[in-house]
Amino acid sequence: MIAAVHAAGIEHPWAHQARAAEHALDGDSVVVATGTASGKSLSYLVPVLSTLLDGAEAPNGRGATALYLAPTKALAADQCRSVKELSQPLGHSVRAAVHDGDTPFEEREWIRQYANYVLTNPDMLHRGILPSHPRWSSFLKALKYVVIDECHTYRGVFGSHVAQVLRRLRRLCARYGASPVFLLASATAAEPAVAARRLTGLPVVEVADDASPRGELVFALWEPPLTELHGEKGAPVRRTATAEAADLLTDLTVQGVRSVAFVRSRRGAELISVIAKERLAEVDRSLTGRVAAYRGGYLPEERRALERALHSGELLGLAATNALELGMDVSGLDAVVIAGYPGTRASLWQQAGRAGRSGQGALAVLVARDDPLDTFLVHHPEALFDRPVESTVLDPDNPYVLAPHLCAAAEELPLTEDDLALFGPTTEELLPQLEAAKLLRRRTRAWHWTRRERAADLTDIRGEGGRPVQVVEAGTGRLLGTVDAGAAHTSVHEGAVHLHQGRTYVVRSLDLEDSVALVEQASPSWTTVARDTTSISVLETDTEIPWGDGRLCFGSVEVTNQVVSFLRRRVITGEVLGETKLDLPPRTLRTRAVWWTVTEDQLDRARIDPEILGGALHAAEHASIGMLPLFATCDRWDIGGVSVPLHPDTLLPTVFVYDGHPGGAGFAERAFHTARSWLTATRQAIASCECEAGCPSCIQSPKCGNGNDPLHKRGAVRLLDVLLEGAPEEKTDGAEDGAEEGTEEAEAVAGASEGSGGRLSAPAEGAAEAAPDREVPPVP
Question: By its UniProt entry, which CDD domains does this protein fall under (predicted)?
């Protein structure tokens, strides 16, 4: 260890770095949970480099090996660059290489045979390395360390898939005689040891005593001003967070401040870049080339060029999605602008932590959207600064997650009864079902994969719903980039405005069978927003609790979603210019949901007549979805909602909130167990907003599937009042993670005296009062 530390030029490791390295070298799996820029990478690199250095003269010419897993390609590429710089004094003892979907095929064979530090992502491990384990046998046989960086990102369905991928890795390593030590790192993990044990299935030592020096971080909460425009029913309209963030990025660039603006969507990143370039051209044309967009869907060479320009300082400003959130070393960054609350406090602090990574002071600005949660947070900063980050929610035993991994494991090596404990208690129940489905066949004492196709292709661990759609320029045939299959219906439908590297295109056609969208370059003065419809049916009710006369339920549902039209909106103001119909096929999603019903007697007590019932339910649904991220580790695109004045399955007025992932992700279950606190917070968010009849800061949504009609603010408050009258006390005995945290959040909301929560839903054709309303995530 001493040789590796000094050879790498590390003179005085901080206490947490030394402690983590010692545990790792002693064979203990470790999670390092210290702040951003606290040297976590050295906590795992010191034992890794030390072990690789000691094994450099091994008889097989390779010696010990190590595997690094990152949630994004950008982070893996960045870490590879850092490792090569750090290990230069060690000569050729450390042979680091990135192995992901961008790696040329001619390099992959060299990596398999000679690299001793392979940097990849869970997707490549799942689809490429584990199914081809005989070709990786020498690497796996010598595997000493598995590094899992930014481990807090492995939550929900994605985290559950990764947990099973890691169990498959452990099983194959044992087959080759290896038992690697797992080294995990995150700046923003709650109960890190608990989350790490859940992810890896192993006991893990926690190191959380941060001994690194820190510069001052000034954090500003920014609410965009009201404009002279008015939305539905005359509601006031604020300037968009996108336009505000673009102006801030422009001002910071003019002053020579190195900055990143984080945006929630790919389109938002492109828009901020375009607007900032236009503003900069008015000041100094030489500055326009120093601002760019960075997002998924770019070609590999474009991403690498942008990363180099950011590191070198050639770029002063960057509008980026969360691809740059996750630990990329952008030392020298002075400011971060966050366009809209990113969904969790964990992501907020990850993004803010990108500034000031060299120990200097830094600035972070959260620009609020017209959203119930954003508005609440800028008026009540204690909900951000006085609360810990969220606990990590994942469920490796989810049968929708586990089943395809059992098939993949059986193809890698036949499953035996000795493997059941590794994959969890649900395994024994699932194997007969997989046999009945003719996916597995039992021979003697083992289960075998029965089909010719690859079992690893049964599931997409990120839930992106199939082959990405290629975006091709019609006139030249040039490939511009890709769009995830799950987002294609809403983002590259015929007539959609598509932005790429600051250039504007209009989609001429979308071929879903061949997964190709043809685009033409154009300069429209508008952007486009898709509108869709959603229906929901109850498949099975698992749990049902009386709430006075009403009921609170949790179970399985099927959601059917169809994009039916799109709106054209002015870029800066959001003014609607027109609507165009679309003819796209419906998509279905089987998932988990929480729902509540009210009776006619309750409606009478709440003074809600049939004329306002649809609007009251609709408003309560919008606001409850907006507030759920305070109670569950979810982004609002992880969840959806439907409200129906008379649902055919319940025969009562019903509001549904569901997980936007096949099989569920644990968010609706969290909502069920914290329902009293969650709906109390929702009621307070609506009631404390100063608007008269509802606005984007409480119950309106620019993405509403029903065009924000009908909505009834006062009816929603009275409806929630009568529902909460019968709410039972919540359990606080730890039976459900986060129930106590949810209560604390509700207390913060209950203390509010002004402005609160509001924007919600995704578009569909206009609705009559009897039609369901919903807010939906993209359906995979």
Answer: DEXHc_Hrq1-like, SF2_C_Hrq
